[in-house]
């Protein structure tokens, strides 16, 4: 699969993972706080900051009964209607430009998840460099088609999607003009558990769809994200807030600045640690070869003395013959006087 270039950054297995800080509704309806989140994400080292572009009316209906009301006892948002939740969580559209402008000033890529076609049109006016499709919209093929027609890279979360559904999604995006697709392994529970993350899907998904694959991580901490890099993830997305204690619709499963910095650092270390298949001493290890064990004379010997387990031992450092020659030299005579502490070599043997 080919590398994906976005505003000077390249998504590639040759590069450290592309880290996306997802603001979502953690701005708590304050533009000042939203800008602070941008600044904190940049300081922590994130490569991109993502918004969500919708209104309550483009997401659902203003009904607070039946299926429009969240009564799941395990939901973070139990006791509210879908409309009220999206009214609280949405990012005002007039905020997008100042947020994206601040991202650009700080060297980050700013982009968003559109939830309907009007959001795509709006984001096109702002010239976003790529798009994200949320898990709950990954079967919305008309939306997929609309976004793909822009020709810009698409990052698609795969939460809940079957292989057949993902095949429809990827095929639709490619046929509509998108050449650069990243699929994100995602578990659509909030928060998600490591046990339900199934990161082993990442290399399988990569092989199946022949595209870059990453992780949209709703678990607490950074462990799952770091592990995903070893399995080939090239993009990682985590929700981000200034402080979970500040509250907000997604705050409970969002990283704080110090944790985001740790994510950036540790995923880069994981990527660096993968390296290539290698055996033998690396250049940096060659100086350590002298500290291997080898055969040494441990008692003073006179010419004609016989080597035995009393006067030869396998010790550090490594300037003598390798230990594998121990049995071969036992019973051999030395042809010269040998001081204690002399490395055994063929030259001293008769």
Automatic annotation (TrEMBL):
Its EC number is 2.5.1.97. One of its GO terms (biological process) is carbohydrate biosynthetic process. Keywords: Transferase. Pfam families: NeuB (PF03102), SAF (PF08666). GO terms for molecular function: N-acylneuraminate-9-phosphate synthase activity. Residues 294-350 form the AFP-like domain. It is an enzyme of class 2 (transferase). InterPro entries: AFP_Neu5c_C_sf (IPR036732), Aldolase_TIM (IPR013785), PseI-like (IPR051690), PseI/NeuA/B-like_N (IPR013132), Pseudaminic_synth_PseI (IPR020030), SAF (IPR013974), SAF_AFP_Neu5Ac (IPR006190), SAF_PseI/NeuA/NeuB (IPR057736). SMART domains: SAF. Gene3D superfamilies: Aldolase class I, Antifreeze-like/N-acetylneuraminic acid synthase C-terminal domain. PANTHER family: N-ACETYLNEURAMINATE SYNTHASE, PSEUDAMINIC ACID SYNTHASE. This is Pseudaminic acid synthase. It comes from Candidatus Cohnella colombiensis.
């Amino acid at each position: 699969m080919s590398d994906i270039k976005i505003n000077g950054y390249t998504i590639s297995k040759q590069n450290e993972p592309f880290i996306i800080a997802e603001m979502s509704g953690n701005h708590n309806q304050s533009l000042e706080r939203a800008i602070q989140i941008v600044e904190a994400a940049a300081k922590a080292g994130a490569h991109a900051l993502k918004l969500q572009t919708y209104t309550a009316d483009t997401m659902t209906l203003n009904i607070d009964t039946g299926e429009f009301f969240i009564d799941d006892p395990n939901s973070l948002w139990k006791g509210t209607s879908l409309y009220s939740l999206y009214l609280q969580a949405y990012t005002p559209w007039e905020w997008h430009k100042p947020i994206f402008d601040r991202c650009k000033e700080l060297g980050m890529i700013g982009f968003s998840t559109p939830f309907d076609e009007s959001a795509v049109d709006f984001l096109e006016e702002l010239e976003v460099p790529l798009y994200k499709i949320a898990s709950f919209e990954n079967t919305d093929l008309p939306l997929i088609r609309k976004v793909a027609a822009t020709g810009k890279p698409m990052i698609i979360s795969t939460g809940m999607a079957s292989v057949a559904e993902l095949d429809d999604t990827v095929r639709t995006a490619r046929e509509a003009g998108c050449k650069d697709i990243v699929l994100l392994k995602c578990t659509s529970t909030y928060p998600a558990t490591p046990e339900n993350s199934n990161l082993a899907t990442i290399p399988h998904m990569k092989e199946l769809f022949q595209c870059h694959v990453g992780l949209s991580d709703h678990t607490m901490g950074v462990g799952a994200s770091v592990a995903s890099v070893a399995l080939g993830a090239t993009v990682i997305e985590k929700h981000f807030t200034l402080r979970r204690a500040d509250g907000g619709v997604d705050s409970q499963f969002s990283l704080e600045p110090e944790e985001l910095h740790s994510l950036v650092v540790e995923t880069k270390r994981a990527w660096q640690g993968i390296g290539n298949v290698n055996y033998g001493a690396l250049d940096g290890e060659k100086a350590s070869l002298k500290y291997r064990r080898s055969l040494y004379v441990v008692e003073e010997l006179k010419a004609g003395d016989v080597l035995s387990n009393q006067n030869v031992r396998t010790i550090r450092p490594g300037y003598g013959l390798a230990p594998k020659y121990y049995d071969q030299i036992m019973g051999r005579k030395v042809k010269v006087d040998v001081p204690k502490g002399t490395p055994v070599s063929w030259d001293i043997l008769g």
